[in-house]
Structures are given as structure tokens and as C-alpha cells.
């Protein structure tokens, strides 16, 4: 009588996700009664720490929200602050910020694909196990991750909490020789990145079409990253300053993350959402590589996120190559800033999706208020909705282990970054 | 040695060309990150033409004007030291065999013939001291030795001392008297070139120099003499050894310890300081290991650490070690003071502690 | 007789995950490490067994909930070597700023229903709760130091720690001093080396993310920063940043905050 | 140029546990030619390299005429020495040396000798004891004085007893803090000067904590021993052992090169001066 078995499953620590979270599942009479993605990253209260700090300190502080995507936090913050100061980054700064950001996408996506997600689809517990059977694939992944880190280091000295970014530009411009050396590495990595697209598509990905709203930035001529308007698959198209009029954050008792919703409904941000909304902005070789996978994008299969990540790695490498062509270091790597008071918005595409900031500064450039909406809290409601569906489809009669595996795989596929959520996750299933 | 000759300014590039043809990579002064540093020169255009420095305790700033001169500045943050005594280098590596046997492999630096243009008298004096330390004892240092053997030195007599300079007081400048291969005196219209070694003589011969007008020599001599005159700082004496050791409990040591950050900037920029630490960096899998050395300083805790005891735990003892060694026990070790009057430790001390002032305060009236 | 592999765990508390990345960014060395030791718990990398006894436990993050306090005590019991990695675990992290302010009040301002949030008013370092065998500073720690510690322990010796100040490291890299040449309020003279003097090499002032060095003269540096034109509040902020919970910095920060409110005549 | 920093490989022939924390490693170079060439004076030291961990200075305690082995008696106190303590027979190490100035044994021939050591077993002095006992006829009376903090700190208790039974040898032991069954004196090591006969013409060799050596020097000077007959072995931080790294400086002396054994007048000025 499995149908009427009462289930109470708890996965106390989710493996291979960034930060720590838990999942509670209560099944009663064959129906999910409760499903909670519990994020128990203790609140770190960054928005409050920022108050009273000087604008120059902001990039170094917000980087500390997330060790995996510090560049994204820095880029959203400087955009908002420069907006207040009426400082438009010059073409060199703008281009190099994109290169810097590409480094983070490459690093973060490779890490997720190889260290976190792929072991799921191949049936290993960790990358170390996977490496024994697939040494070349793992090596290729680690090399891409390393290259991403290298790009960040070129502009920031280190890949976690890089020190190079500042309001107005960068503290230091890399030399031509350093850039040439990097270009060589990027060129050498391109074939591997292209092959990675095909490889992710060849994985035994669950076939799981579902209905969801994608939200991402959109830029007139570029694949979105460090600027654009916010658009959705439902026809939304707003400037970033209007975000708060359409997106609402609310609190749930079980989580320290705030849940965001668009017009009252869950939505998706991140690589698949970006790709679905910006296919026409991809570099041609990436579009072709995607075409060869036989997968039709825009895709409604959430598990195609991993393919989207691979495509974005490929795209980012081509973008770096393009941006660093004919590189020369400028006179000064930054424009000086003159503080003034005002409210500014910053919104960029972190590896995990839309990262929205708002700052109110006083005349001396000190922060009066800050608001930060990270991608993971935007995806949280969507993850729970997906989980509910996905576990029901799998069959709630399955044993706890199978449910846990399925749940983890679903969650992991979103690449939630629980530190980002400024909060976290464990699975707990209760069957009654 | 040949009589000095004259190299008109436009022909300065011939000097670079001759050095390059002789197989040297040419290092010279360049502006980088707001300071004059020795780096590889691609052409004479890299030189800091019209650049002047302002140095004060704890402060260094550059300024440009339209002077044609390229050497119208006093020394920058580093002398020749890093070129010879590398800030960090692997001395040897070892590898473990599967049977536990250890194989040792020496690691010699690449022998790169290097010419340095713009070397100052104080730096030559410091080099002489470092040569004594690293090469003239019972165990010559081959790492230093390889680099030293490949060095070609083009000195420039100093005409623009900084407010922090006191080489006249230590007797080490501003004129470069010896220890160079070639020496230059810069005038607006060009350079007076003197050879100082057989190597220098050969190069001198290739420069197609013009005859020197005695008036030019007089101008140059006058500028150098004025440079000595212009110096504001002095040490109380060239030998403060006894005076310092007689004052080991002077209250001034406590006073300076309140101000000193114990940050080791002074000893790092000092062209004679030689202290270094040896460290080990094994590979993660333990298959091999690198034994390297890096600059250390009497201002660090590690400098005086012996199994559980730090001989100089506080700043008072560390600053006292620095001063008593530099101006005192150096006499026992190398027959002279370890200070060549370059003033770097004054300018590059973040809090502007002035060695001449501290020495005067500690030694009070009781020096010769 | 093959000796059993050493068992290793990586635990996380309140943090940004950046220090764990010191492992995940190791590349091939990560695979090598997995061969050398048995990684029994490292949730982000896969293995989950938080209660297993281990030889080496790396701990990231600060303690900020009652559950954290209990968990770290358990980890201590299960671990031979407990090594903190990073500013959060070693000094409470940037989030220790709440210790200086009104933690619960802040929670109320951010969360509509603060009652849902179970959190201590403070963010404290691991050593405030259990004995720690080795502290690796840095925000983030660098992989070289973490691996160096593992390697030393595998050799059966105590890991060597970096002790110099950022200034010395800066000079070894031949960076031009940004305090002297640009008048920037650099924290290098009181900060522990280990980052490779990144900030000055990038032309900017060190912000002390590696925490206080041995024998730091925070008072003298504070006076110098004031001399460079910083108002007392700004001097205080230099100390009360990434490692605001480190006693030497906390004290200097408090001093300058007092100066700001009650300047001496 | 020969590389003076490069060690050669040695093998542990034997390991002897002397006390819970003190052990002796009996070493020989794996290259017999190097072993055959190797010569040293008692009081000199080697740099001992533990693979992948680091080098430390350690005195040589074996007999200089034994061409086949080199003994080091080591106390496990820190990273390297605790690592060395884990090694057994057959293990490999790196070694370079010998370095420094040893004891003035030529000067000592035909004279009474007083050896004074403090703290836990002082290896440099033990080497001299062995040296003299093997060439007994060349030296006068031998006085061995050892001071320890606690009676439990005394190692080689049996050795001291055995030495005290030899003709023309006197042994004096003192502990700052006495304990049950303690057969020596209680008090600082200087109390021993009243218990044994010290000829003012004797040569003194001492090794131990500096305050102890300073007190002993003062006492012996009072008893008429000449300054230049007082010899002290000093310990400082050493990384290179060849006078380059600067760590061992004590005023103008590089302890590694000018010492580690000094006649008192050479270090008199700074002995006991905190910070040098
Ligand atoms: C002349 C002389 C003779 C001596 N004779 C004896 C004797 O006979 N018996 C005896 O027991 N003791 C003797 N000692 C004392 C002995 O040398 C010390 O006890 C010993 O050095 C203590 O070493 P340690 O194990 O604490 O290692 P540590 O001092 O902790 O480590 C030393 C080594 O570690 C490496 N290292 C240090 N820091 C780092 C870092 N940050 N990164 C990487 N590597 C690093 C360096 O290579 C360094 O040399 C003698 C000392 C002297 C000066
Ligand atoms: S002891 Fe101090 S002053 Fe002397 S060489 Fe070393 S660092 Fe310089
Ligand atoms: S004197 Fe100045 S440079 Fe030298 S250690 Fe002290 S503060 Fe640093
Ligand atoms: S220089 Fe200072 S702030 Fe910058 S990375 Fe290093 S320790 Fe951190």
C-alpha cells in the first residue's frame, strides 16, 4: 500500500550546493503537505553593515556576500554608485569589466557543471569519484575553471574577493604582455569549451518540460551581462530602476532568504532564462554549437540549464577574445569620482542570474540605505514549485533515498548559491 | 684609463645600442606607479626626461617639467639590491624517491648579462658592502655571484639630492668615485663619459665620443659640489659604534618604539641590509620540495625566533637592533658603517622616522 | 603495512563560501588531495558526514546561531586538528560588525517577521567557543597556505604560518609603496602577510583582509592615517572592516570612534 | 662556485631514545666518499634538513675521530625537531656542515677542565666529555657540573653516576627545585662551586641558558679564573649557518661563523643584554 505510505523525509545537509540548506518534505496520504527549502545561512545583515560606509568601501564589502560570484556583486554595486555620481564608464573600462565578469561566469559555470552537477547525471558522489572514470572530462572542466579564475586574477589579483575593481573603473590596468599571455590561453581553451556544449547535451538529462517565466537582462547588441533592461518571457520590459514596482520580496517562516515574486508568481533567473531570452545575442559559433546538440532553445526543460551554462562558457571565451583584441592599457584605468547624493540602481547578470542593487548615498558619498536582491532568493519559489512537481512525477511512493536524490538533483540544477541568498539548505522528509 | 669624453644627448641611444650589441639587457630608470624604478629600457625614450622627485620623511612624489635631463632626480625606492640579492629565490630543490631516498638539486639563476644605467654613488657604496657580505667571506654565495659577475654598471653622478639624502655625510657621494664600468655626468646638452674598468673601457671605445670642453667639466663638477652642499641631513659621526653601544638603555629607544610600525620597510629599501629567511615549500603530494630564501628583517618576529623564545619581541628591541647594527656593529663586521646615506629608509618609512634624527638623539653629545 | 589515510572534513558556518573555494579552486591539486586523504565531509564537494571523526577539520565561517554553538562543540570533539580558515572563522568576519551595533534591531529592519529568524546577536570566531589548533587568516585564505597546512600535517609536523607584515611582502614584490608615493591610507604596516601584497601591487591601499600581524602598532598607524587627512571616523572604519572582531583592530577602532565623538581638546 | 647551501643525503643508522623528548640520531652520508672526507671539531654543528620541512642547527656529539658516523642528540621542541623525532633507522635526511668554531681543545690539553651545563642535557658539552674520556691522559682533572630546573629534567642520570666513579672526575648536580630521591644539591648551579674544587688555572667550557652562564662567569671570575679561560657556547636563530642570513647576529658577531663557541671576552659586552 505504498500509495498511502506516510512520508517524512529530511535531507539535513544538501551536498554539492554552495552554502548550506535543507529540505523538509511532509507527505500525507500520498500528497505533499509541506515542502520547504530551508535556507539557514544565518542572516549576515549586509544591507545594514553598508549604512554609514563610504562609497569606496562598498565594492570590497559586497564582494563578501558571496565567494563564488564576488565580481557580480562588485559590478552591480559600482553601476549603481556611478549612476548616482553621473559617471559613465569609458569604453575601456566598460570592455574590461565585461572581460572580468566573463572570468566569473567561466569559473562559476565550470565549477557547477563539473564539481556539482555532472556527478548527478553520471552517478557519482563527487568529482573525485567521477575523475577516476572520466579523467579527461574532469581535467578539461578544471582547466576551464582555472582559466576563469585566471581572468579574474588579471584584473583583481585573486579570484575570490578580487581587489582590482573600484568605482570609476579598475585600480590597475593589466599590461599588454599579460593580456597577450591570457589571450593565448583563451584561444587554447576554445575548442574544449565548444566540445563541452556537446558533452553536456549528451548527458542523460531528465526530460522534464515545464511551464515557467524566464527573467533576464536584455541589451541592444550584447549577450546580457553588465547592463540592460529587465525583460521576461511574459512580455515584461522595464528599466532596472522599475524593478521594485514589479518584483516583490516576502518572507517565509522557514527560511532566512526572502522570496521574490513577479506579479505574485515564481519566476526563473539564471543561465537558462538568459539563454531563452537572448539566443539572438550569442556569438555565432555558440549558436551553431547549440544547434548541433539537437535541443530546441528556448527550452522548457529545466535540466537544460547545464547546457546553457556550457554555452555561456563558450560565449564568454569568445567575448573575452573579442574584447581583448588590439588591447592597450589606458592612461588611467579609472575615472575619478565626485560624490553627490542620490539613489542609484545596479543590475547585472551574475552567473546565477539577475543581481539587483539599490543605494541611497548622502552628499559625502556615504551609504544611507542599501537593498540587495540576489538571484537565489529570486529562484527560491521557483525551486520549490519545481520540486513539488518533480517529486510527484517521480512518485511519492519511492523510498526516501530516491526522493532525496531526486530532490537534490532538482535543487542543484538551479545552482542555488545559499551564501548569496545571504542565507541557506538540509532535506528533511516527514511521512505520516 | 682614457680621458673623459663627451656624448651629445641625441647620441645617448648609441650607449644603449652598444650595450645591447655587447649582449646586455639594459635596465634603467623609468616611471612606474609614481616612482622611479629600474626596469628594462626599450629605448632612450623610456627615460624619465624632465622628471624630478620630492622626498620627505614618509613621502615621495614626482613632478615633471620641460628640462631635457633624464637623471635629474635622487634615488627611487630601490637600489641595485633586488637585482643581485633577489627578494625571493629558490636555493635548491629536493625530491623523495619511493624508497625514501632524497635527491638534492641546485637551482642556479640564469646568467643574464645586465647593464644598469643611472646607478648612484650611494648605491655603488652599498654594492661594495653587499659584495663583501655575500662574496668575500669563506662561503661565497653563488646565486649572488652569478648575477654580480654579469653586471655592467653605468653610474650617474648625483646633481639633484633629495631632502632625505645625506651621502656627503657618510662619505659615499654624490660623485661616483669607483666601482662602476662607466660613469656619466649629465649636462643639459649631453653627458661626460668616464670609463672605470677594463670592461667599461672597451665600451667607452665604441661610443665615438667627442672631445670634452673644460668648461663642461667645470659645470659638471660645480653641480656635483653643489649637490653635496645642498644636503640637509647628516649623521653625528661616521663611526657611532661605541656611542650606540654605550647607550643601549637610552630613553629614546622607547620613544621611537611608540612611533615605529615595525613594518620592515626601512630594512627592505636599505641597499645594504642583507638579512633573509630560508623556508621550505613542499609539493602537496610530497614528491618534491623547494627550499627558498626571501628577504627578512630584524623588524620581524621570525628574525630572532629560537624554539619558543623571541629574542626581540618588541619594537624597542627591534629598532635598537636595526640602528646598532647599521651604524654600530657593521664596523666590526665590514670595517665601516652599514649606512651609505641614501636616505631611503627615511622617505619610505610610512611614518617618516628619520635615522639621522634617531641616531643623533640616542648618541646625544657623546660621539666623537 | 599501509598507514590509513588521514581523514579530512570541511565544515561551514556563517560565511560567503569563499574560503572553501580555496579547495574547489585547486584544480588538479583537488584530485590529488582526494587521493592523499579521505575527504569524509565537505558538503559543497559532495561527501556529507558531518559527525564523522576526522584527523583534520577545516572550519569556515563564524558562529551566529545557537545551533552553531552546539555544532562546533561536536566538531571539536570529533577532530584531532581543528583549523579555522578565513576571517569569519578566525575573527568573526565582516558580519561581526553586528557585534558593535544593534543586531536584533537590524534583523527587524530587514525581515518583516524577525521572529522567524533564530540568530544570536553576535557573530563570533570559532576560538571564542572551542579551542582551535591553527588559525589561517585571510579573506579569503589562500590555497597555498591551506595546502601547506595539510602537507605539514601529513608529514607529521606543525604547519608553519606566515608572520610577516604586508609591507615586507610588498617590498619583496617590489611594489611601490602607495602610502608613501600616493598618500593612500594603507593598512599594510599592521596587517599579516599571506595575500602576496595584492592591493599595493594593484596600486591601492591594503584594507587589512588578512587581519592583524604580530606586534602591530595600530596607534602609530592610526595617527599616520589621520595625518594623511582621514577624519577620526574614517580612521576607525579602516580598522573596523573585514577583521573588525580581531582584538587589536577592535580596540583601535573603538579608540578612533571615541575620538570622533569626543575629540581631545 | 660550490653551492654552500646544498645539503647532502645522510641515512639514520640508529636511533636512541634518551628521554621522553630527547633522542640521538646516528647518521652517515649515503655517499661513502663524502663520509670519508667529513671532519669536524667538538662543539661544531651541522644543519640538519628534514625533508619538506626545514633545516635546523644541531651540534655534533660523536667523536671526531670516528670516521663512520655522526651523532646528533636532539630535543623535540618545534616543527623540525618534532618531525625528526618521528624518524627511525633507515630514514634519509639532508646534512651540511660542519660549521663554526668548536671548543678550544688544543688549549685545554694538559689542564684541568670544568664543564658547566644548564637546562636539559646540553649536547655540545657531552661531546667534549666523550672526547676527553677517550683521551684521558692528555687532560688534567675533569669536573662536570650540571644544573637543572627540576630534578625530573635530568637526563643521562646513569651516565652522570658512571662518570662520577671514574678516577680524576668530579660530578656535581644541582636542581633549582629539589624532589624526592634527589641526590644532588638544591639551588642554582653556582652552589656547586663550593662543593667541588676548582683550580683557578682550569679551562671552563659552558653551555646553557644565558642568565645561568652569566652568573657562573661572575662567580668564576671572583674565584680567580681568567676571562680568556671561560668559553661559552651560544645559541641564536640560524637559517644559513654561513654568516649570510643575519639571524644569528649578536652585536658584531655572527654566532654561526664566529661561534657558536666564544671565549668570554669576545661576547662579554652583550652577554645577558636583552635583545641581542
Ligand atoms: C649552534 C647551535 C647548536 C644547536 N645544537 C642543538 C643540539 O645539539 N640539540 C638540540 O636539540 N638543539 C640544538 N640547537 C637548537 C635547535 O637548533 C633548535 O631547537 C631548533 O632549531 C628548533 O627547531 P624547531 O623544531 O623548533 O623548528 P622551527 O624553528 O620551527 O623550524 C625551522 C625551519 O623551518 C623552516 N620554516 C620556518 N618558518 C617557515 C615558514 N613560515 N614557511 C616555511 N618554512 C619555514 C625553516 O627552514 C626553518 O629553518 C642548536 C642551536 C644552535 C644555534
Ligand atoms: S640585522 Fe637588521 S639592520 Fe642588520 S642587516 Fe639585518 S635587517 Fe639589516
Ligand atoms: S623605522 Fe619606519 S620603516 Fe622602519 S620599521 Fe619602523 S616604521 Fe617601518
Ligand atoms: S593587501 Fe591587504 S586587503 Fe589587500 S588582499 Fe592583501 S591583506 Fe587583503
Describe this structure in words.
The complex is a heterotetramer of chains A (432), B (368), C (265) and D (276). Chain A has 432 residues and is of the alpha+beta class. Chain A has one domain (43-378): Cytochrome-c3 Hydrogenase, chain B (Orthogonal Bundle), CATH 1.10.645.10. Chain A contains 13 helices and 14 strands. In chain A, the strands form 5 sheets. In chain A, strands 1, 2, 3 and 14 form a 4-stranded mixed beta sheet that branches. Chain B is α+β, with helices and mostly antiparallel strands. Chain B contains 13 helices and 15 strands. Chain B has a 7-stranded mixed beta sheet, with helices on both faces. With 265 residues, chain C is an alpha/beta fold. Chain C has 2 domains: 6-154, Rossmann fold, CATH 3.40.50.700; 166-261, no CATH class. Chain C contains 13 helices and 5 strands. A 5-stranded parallel beta sheet of chain C has the order 2-1-3-4-5. In chain C, α12 runs antiparallel to α13 (247-261). Chain C is globular. Helix content of chain D is 21%, strand content 31%. Chain D is built from 8 helices and 15 strands. Chains in contact: A-C, B-C, B-D, C-D. At the A-C interface, α1, α4, α5 and α6 of A face α1, α2, α6 and α10 of C. The complex binds flavin-adenine dinucleotide and iron/sulfur cluster (SF4) (3 copies). The site of one iron/sulfur cluster (SF4) has 10 residues of chain B, from α11.
Amino acid at each position: 500500500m505504498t500509495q498511502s505510505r506516510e512520508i517524512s523525509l529530511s535531507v539535513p545537509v544538501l551536498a554539492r550546493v554552495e552554502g548550506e540548506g535543507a529540505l523538509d518534505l511532509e507527505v500525507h496520504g500520498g500528497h505533499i503537505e509541506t515542502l520547504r527549502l530551508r535556507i539557514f545561512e544565518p542572516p549576515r545583515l549586509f544591507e545594514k553593515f553598508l549604512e554609514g560606509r563610504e562609497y569606496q568601501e562598498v565594492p570590497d564589502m559586497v564582494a563578501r556576500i558571496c565567494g563564488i560570484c564576488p565580481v557580480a556583486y562588485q559590478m552591480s554595486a559600482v553601476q549603481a554608485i556611478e549612476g548616482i555620481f553621473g559617471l559613465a564608464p569609458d569604453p575601456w573600462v566598460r570592455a574590461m569589466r565585461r572581460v572580468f565578469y566573463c572570468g566569473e561566469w567561466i569559473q562559476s559555470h565550470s565549477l557547477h557543471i563539473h564539481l556539482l552537477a555532472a556527478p548527478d547525471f553520471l552517478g557519482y558522489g563527487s568529482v573525485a569519484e567521477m575523475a577516476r572514470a572520466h579523467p579527461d572530462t574532469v581535467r578539461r572542466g578544471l582547466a576551464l575553471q582555472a582559466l576563469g579564475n585566471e581572468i579574474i586574477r588579471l584584473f583583481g589579483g585573486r579570484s575570490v574577493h578580487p581587489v582590482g575593481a573600484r568605482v570609476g573603473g579598475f585600480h590597475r590596468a593589466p599590461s599588454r604582455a599579460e593580456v597577450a599571455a591570457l589571450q593565448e590561453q583563451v584561444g587554447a581553451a576554445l575548442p574544449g569549451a565548444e566540445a563541452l556544449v556537446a558533452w553536456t547535451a549528451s548527458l542523460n538529462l531528465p526530460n522534464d518540460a515545464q511551464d515557467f517565466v524566464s527573467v533576464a537582462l536584455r541589451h541592444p547588441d550584447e549577450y546580457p551581462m553588465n547592463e540592460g533592461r529587465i525583460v521576461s518571457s511574459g512580455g515584461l520590459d522595464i528599466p532596472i530602476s522599475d524593478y521594485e514596482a514589479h518584483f516583490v520580496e516576502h518572507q517565509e517562516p522557514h527560511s532566512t532568504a526572502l522570496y521574490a515574486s513577479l506579479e505574485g508568481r515564481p519566476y526563473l533567473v539564471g543561465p537558462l532564462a538568459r539563454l531563452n531570452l537572448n539566443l539572438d545575442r550569442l556569438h555565432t559559433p555558440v549558436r551553431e554549437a547549440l544547434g548541433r546538440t539537437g535541443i530546441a532553445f528556448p527550452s522548457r526543460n529545466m535540466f537544460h540549464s547545464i547546457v546553457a551554462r556550457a554555452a555561456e562558457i563558450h560565449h564568454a571565451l569568445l567575448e573575452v577574445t573579442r574584447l581583448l583584441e588590439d588591447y592597450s592599457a589606458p592612461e588611467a584605468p579609472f575615472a575619478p569620482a565626485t560624490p553627490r547624493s542620490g539613489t542609484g540602481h545596479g543590475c547585472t547578470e551574475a552567473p546565477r542570474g539577475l543581481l539587483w542593487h539599490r543605494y541611497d548615498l548622502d552628499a559625502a558619498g556615504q551609504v544611507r540605505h542599501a537593498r540587495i536582491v540576489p538571484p537565489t532568493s529570486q529562484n527560491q519559489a521557483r525551486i520549490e514549485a519545481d520540486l513539488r512537481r518533480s517529486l510527484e512525477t517521480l512518485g511519492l511512493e519511492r523510498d526516501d533515498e530516491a526522493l532525496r536524490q531526486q530532490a537534490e538533483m532538482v535543487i542543484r540544477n538551479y545552482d542555488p548559491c545559499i551564501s548569496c541568498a545571504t542565507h541557506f539548505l538540509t532535506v528533511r522528509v516527514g511521512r505520516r | 684609463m682614457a680621458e673623459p669624453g663627451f656624448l651629445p644627448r641625441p647620441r645617448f641611444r648609441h650607449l644603449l645600442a652598444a650595450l645591447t650589441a655587447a649582449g646586455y639587457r639594459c635596465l634603467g630608470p623609468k616611471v612606474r606607479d609614481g616612482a622611479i624604478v629600474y626596469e628594462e629600457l626599450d629605448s632612450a625614450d623610456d627615460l624619465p626626461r624632465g622628471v624630478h622627485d620630492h622626498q620627505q620623511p614618509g613621502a615621495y612624489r614626482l613632478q615633471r617639467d620641460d628640462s631635457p635631463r633624464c637623471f635629474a632626480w635622487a634615488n627611487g625606492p630601490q637600489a641595485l639590491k633586488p637585482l643581485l640579492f633577489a627578494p625571493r629565490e629558490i636555493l635548491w630543490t629536493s625530491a623523495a624517491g619511493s624508497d625514501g631516498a632524497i635527491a638534492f638539486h641546485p637551482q642556479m639563476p640564469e646568467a643574464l648579462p645586465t647593464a644598469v644605467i643611472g646607478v648612484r654613488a650611494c648605491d655603488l657604496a652599498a654594492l661594495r658592502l653587499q659584495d663583501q657580505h655575500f662574496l668575500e667571506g669563506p662561503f661565497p654565495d653563488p646565486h649572488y655571484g652569478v648575477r654580480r659577475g654579469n653586471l655592467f654598471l653605468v653610474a650617474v653622478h648625483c646633481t639633484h639630492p633629495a631632502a632625505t639624502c645625506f651621502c656627503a655625510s657618510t662619505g659615499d657621494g654624490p660623485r661616483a668615485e669607483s666601482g662602476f664600468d662607466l660613469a656619466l655626468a649629465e649636462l643639459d646638452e649631453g653627458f661626460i663619459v668616464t670609463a672605470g674598468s677594463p670592461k667599461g673601457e672597451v665600451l667607452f671605445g665604441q661610443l665615438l665620443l667627442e672631445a670634452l670642453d673644460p668648461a663642461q667639466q667645470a659645470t659638471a663638477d660645480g653641480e656635483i659640489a653643489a649637490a653635496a652642499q645642498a644636503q640637509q641631513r647628516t649623521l653625528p659621526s661616521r663611526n657611532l659604534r661605541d656611542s650606540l653601544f654605550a647607550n643601549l638603555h637610552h630613553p629614546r629607544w622607547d620613544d621611537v618604539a611608540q612611533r615605529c610600525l615595525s613594518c620592515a620597510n626601512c630594512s627592505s629599501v636599505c641597499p645594504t641590509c642583507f638579512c633573509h629567511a630560508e623556508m621550505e615549500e613542499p609539493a602537496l603530494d610530497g614528491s618534491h620540495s623547494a627550499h627558498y630564501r626571501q628577504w627578512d628583517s630584524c623588524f620581524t618576529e621570525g628574525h630572532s625566533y629560537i624554539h619558543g623564545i623571541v629574542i626581540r619581541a618588541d619594537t624597542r628591541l627591534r629598532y635598537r637592533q636595526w640602528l646598532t647594527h647599521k651604524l654600530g656593529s657593521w664596523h666590526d663586521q665590514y670595517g665601516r658603517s652599514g649606512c651609505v646615506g641614501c636616505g631611503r629608509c627615511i622617505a619610505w618609512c610610512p611614518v617618516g622616522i628619520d635615522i639621522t634624527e634617531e641616531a643623533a638623539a640616542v648618541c646625544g653629545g657623546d660621539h666623537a | 603495512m599501509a598507514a590509513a589515510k588521514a581523514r579530512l572534513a570541511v565544515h561551514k558556518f556563517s560565511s560567503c563560501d569563499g574560503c572553501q573555494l580555496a579547495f574547489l579552486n585547486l584544480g588538479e591539486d583537488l584530485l590529488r588531495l582526494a587521493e592523499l586523504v579521505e575527504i569524509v565531509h565537505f558538503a559543497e564537494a559532495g561527501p556529507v558526514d558531518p559527525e564523522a571523526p576526522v584527523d583534520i577539520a577545516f572550519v569556515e565561517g563564524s558562529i551566529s546561531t545557537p545551533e552553531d554553538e552546539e555544532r562546533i562543540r561536536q566538531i571539536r570533539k570529533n577532530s584531532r586538528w581543528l583549523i579555522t580558515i578565513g576571517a569569519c572563522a578566525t575573527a568573526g568576519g565582516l558580519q561581526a560588525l553586528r557585534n558593535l551595533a544593534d543586531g536584533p534591531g537590524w534583523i527587524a529592519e530587514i525581515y518583516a517577521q524577525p521572529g522567524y529568524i533564530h540568530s544570536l546577536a553576535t557573530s563570533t570566531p570559532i576560538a571564542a567557543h572551542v579551542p582551535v589548533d591553527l588559525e589561517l587568516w585571510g579573506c579569503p585564505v589562500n590555497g597555498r597556505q591551506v595546502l601547506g597546512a595539510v602537507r605539514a600535517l601529513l608529514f607529521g609536523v606543525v604547519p608553519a604560518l606566515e608572520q610577516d607584515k604586508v609591507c615586507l611582502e610588498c617590498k619583496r614584490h617590489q611594489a611601490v609603496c602607495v602610502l608613501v608615493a600616493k598618500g593612500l591610507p594603507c593598512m599594510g604596516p599592521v596587517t599579516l602577510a599571506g595575500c602576496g601584497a595584492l592591493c599595493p601591487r594593484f596600486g591601492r591601499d591594503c584594507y587589512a583582509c588578512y587581519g592583524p600581524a604580530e606586534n602591530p602598532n595600530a596607534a602609530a598607524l592610526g595617527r599616520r592615517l589621520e595625518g594623511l587627512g582621514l577624519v577620526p571616523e574614517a580612521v576607525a572604519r579602516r580598522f573596523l572592516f573585514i577583521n573588525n572582531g580581531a582584538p587589536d583592530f577592535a580596540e583601535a577602532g573603538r579608540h578612533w570612534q571615541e575620538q570622533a565623538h569626543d575629540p581631545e581638546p | 662556485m660550490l653551492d654552500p647551501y646544498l645539503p647532502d643525503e645522510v641515512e639514520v643508522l640508529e636511533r636512541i631514545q634518551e628521554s621522553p623528548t630527547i633522542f640521538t640520531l646516528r647518521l652517515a652520508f649515503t655517499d661513502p666518499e663524502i663520509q670519508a672526507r667529513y671532519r669536524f671539531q667538538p662543539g661544531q654543528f651541522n644543519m640538519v634538513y628534514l625533508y619538506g620541512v626545514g633545516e635546523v642547527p644541531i651540534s655534533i656529539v660523536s667523536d671526531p675521530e670516528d670516521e663512520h658516523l655522526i651523532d646528533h642528540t636532539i630535543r623535540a621542541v618545534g616543527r623540525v625537531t618534532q618531525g625528526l623525532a618521528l624518524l627511525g633507522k633507515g630514514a634519509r635526511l639532508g646534512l651540511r656542515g660542519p660549521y663554526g668554531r668548536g671548543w678550544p681543545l688544543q688549549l685545554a690539553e694538559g689542564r684541568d677542565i670544568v664543564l658547566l651545563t644548564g637546562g636539559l642535557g646540553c649536547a655540545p658539552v657531552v661531546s667534549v666529555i666523550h672526547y676527553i674520556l677517550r683521551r684521558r691522559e692528555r687532560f688534567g682533572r675533569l669536573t662536570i657540573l650540571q644544573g637543572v630546573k627540576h630534578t625530573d629534567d635530568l637526563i643521562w642520570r646513569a651516565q652522570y653516576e658512571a662518570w662520577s666513579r671514574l678516577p680524576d672526575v668530579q660530578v656535581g648536580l644541582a636542581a633549582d627545585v629539589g624532589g624526592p630521591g634527589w641526590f644532588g644539591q638544591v639551588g642554582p648551579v653556582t652552589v656547586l662551586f663550593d662543593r667541588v674544587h676548582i683550580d683557578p688555572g682550569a679551562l671552563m667550557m659552558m653551555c646553557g641558558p644565558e642568565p645561568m652562564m652569566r652568573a657562573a662567569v661572575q662567580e668564576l671570575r671572583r674565584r680567580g679564573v681568567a676571562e680568556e679561560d671561560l668559553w661559552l657556547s651560544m645559541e641564536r636563530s640560524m637559517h644559513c649557518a654561513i654568516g649570510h642570513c643575519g639571524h644569528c647576529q649578536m652585536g658584531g658577531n655572527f654566532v654561526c661563523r664566529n661561534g657558536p663557541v666564544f671565549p668570554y671576552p669576545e661576547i662579554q659586552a652583550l652577554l645577558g643584554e636583552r635583545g641581542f
